[in-house]
From TrEMBL:
Mg(2+) binds at E117, D157, L159, D160, D286. It comes from Scophthalmus maximus. Pathway: Polyol metabolism; myo-inositol biosynthesis; myo-inositol from D-glucose 6-phosphate: step 2/2. This is inositol-phosphate phosphatase. Keywords: Hydrolase, Magnesium, Membrane, Metal-binding, Transmembrane, Transmembrane helix. CDD domains: IPPase. It is found in: Membrane. One of its GO terms (biological process) is phosphatidylinositol phosphate biosynthetic process. Pfam families: Inositol_P. It catalyses: a myo-inositol phosphate + H2O = myo-inositol + phosphate. One of its GO terms (cellular component) is Golgi apparatus. It is an enzyme of class 3 (hydrolase). PANTHER family: 3'(2'),5'-BISPHOSPHATE NUCLEOTIDASE 1 (PTHR43028), INOSITOL MONOPHOSPHATASE 3 (PTHR43028:SF4). It is a single-pass membrane protein.
Amino acid sequence: MAPMGIRLSPLGVGVFCLLAVGVLYHLYAGVITNRLAALRQRRKVDLRELLAVSVEAAVLGGREVKKVREENSLKEKSKGKTKEGANELLTMGDLQSHRKMYNLLKNTFPEVTVNSEEHDNMVDKAATWSRDIPADILDKIERGKDVPSESVTVWIDPLDATQEYTENLVKYVTTMVCVAVDGKPVIGVIHQPFTGFTAWAIVGQGSNMGPRSSYTVSPPSVIVSRSHSGKVKNYIHDAFGNSTTITEAGGAGYKVLSLLEMPARETASVDQADAYVHITFIKKWDICAGAALLTALGGHMTTLKGEDIDYSGDPLNKGGLVASVGVDHKALLERLPNWDLLKH
């Protein structure tokens, strides 16, 4: 006689499956929970680490910028015209700096949004963070200030002041990184490739910079763009009088540094101003890092109408800007001619 097999009813099969699932759950619940916790942890980023990587990225990009300039291998070409009709240049310095900066940031923090002035499809998986946190950052910035990765937008300018770069006016050139959280600038890094100096700050935590000890407000000295100096000079003279000192300079990063107290060894290479005014369109990767630095030091960067600038979404800031630190920003704004009239 053949051996009899065990036959389960459909109800029995269901009960058996439920028991099996229960056993598996108890066996692996801990593993699943730990993995979910790790996933949630990865979705947050530490601001001190973001600052350290931002500094490293700006320095690496700056090395490329300096190398290309010293080798005179710019290979410059036009990207087209700005909305104001100015020629936008692209050089190998811009491109190689972008590759270093973008890949380092994206490889280290793949969850965050990174916006760069340049666009390039070259992927460099070898661009990894050294895990080094500079001593001055360790000294001034606390760890554990985490923010959700989905709230972070990183703006990078691989080479600010490209026009001046092609003219070998290298004192104006910077590389910049900014971290915005929910549209507000929180981390700012401005690096000068040709001096090796790097300014950095985290809003609410600290900076290696400070405002100057004294400013003039009657009238203030104002720094403006070289490329739009004629129109902005008239605007400033209407606001503060014909005796106002106006300095023309390249690069938004450089202009922000002119408002700050520079280290003694850098002072001679940076002009000084009480306010920075810009009246035409400007991209957010040009100004976000400076906005973070100024905010961290108690200063301001607003539109000409005094509005805060949202550093998320559209990269174009259409409202002009006024930047200051150590002076009454509201008083500056009140003296400016009507922005709506200026647009027409």
